[in-house]
Amino acid sequence: xxxxxxxxxxxxxxxxxxxxxxxxxxxxxxxxxxxxxxxxxxxxxxxxxxxxxxxxxxxxxxxxxxxxxxxxxxxxxxxxxxxxxxxxxxxxxxxxxxxxxxxxxxxxxxxxxxxxxxxxxxxxxxxxxxxxxxxxxxxxxxxxxxxxxxxxxxxxxxxxxxxxxxxxxxxxxxxxxxxxxxxxxxxxxxxxxxxxxxxxxxxxxxxxxxxxxxxxxxxxxxxxxxxxxxxxxxxxxxxxxxxxxxxxxxxxxxxxxxxxxxxxxxxxxxxxxxxxxxxxxxxxxxxxxxxxxxxxxxxxxxxxxxxxxxxxxxxxxxxxxxxxxxxxxxxxxxxxxxxxxxxxx
Length: 345
Description:
Elements: E1 5-9, E2 22-23, E3 38-42, H1 54-57, E4 59-63, E5 68-77, E6 83-95, E7 98-101, H2 109-113, E8 114-116, E9 120-123, E10 127-136, E11 144-156, E12 164-178, E13 188-197, E14 203-211, E15 217-226, E16 234-238, E17 243-245, E18 250-256, E19 266-274, E20 277-285, E21 292-293, E22 297-298, E23 300-301, H3 308-344
């Protein structure tokens, strides 16, 4: 029997199911063929999280034990041939600051709580179809955050006489927090910035980030340089995506400069966000002249990124507090006036 090799086309963990859909193979025009592409995207988001961009990419929710939710995902067949997609849920985890998916159909708690209404979907060429996923949390579920992936998979058998069998799958991540009451808060700090130069001469800035909240973070953002030699400025430089931090975890987030700049010194300002959770920090850095890393510099929190709406709310709250204080003071004075008049009489 001829040896059969199995080629598995998987999505990188940091690129699972963006809003516009995800392809298992190379995108058309990107050096690959569109004839092997399948896609999946999330259609629903919780009403209270619709302003959160992550909630449109991934299933993110907080549920009490005994709760049930339904979420729709759209699967697509961008090939010129009919495809039958297998729809299933398998385990996910956060390790080494990455969202990791388990091989095959490896289960965990969350994957066993998640079912789909259509385990198989027969699709015509260039067709789309809707699948409903149901997550039912057991009444005795322990509190905590759990991770899984809803997968759509298609397999092409090897040609007669042996060859390559291709298995392509795309998926949508699930981040589920279990517990009573409101969901745990999301927050993080940017502790330090480090300027580096790689072996090939590229300049890199590493931001050490610590997840101080109760939810996982998928970090993105940008870096800007100012107050450089001759008062130069540079950027913004995009932060490399794909860094996911579990609650209590910490690790570096990387910004690779796409242009050569003087070694410095520079005032570096980095802005990071995960959904609606944002933070910014600054530090004075200088890139090393040769390959290696400079000393890490403690970052100073930068609050200038706070949205105008938050500032307005702060001003309103302050004004209300002042008005309340004046009202209380007037009431106290009005209570004193009759007694003073009585003594005068």
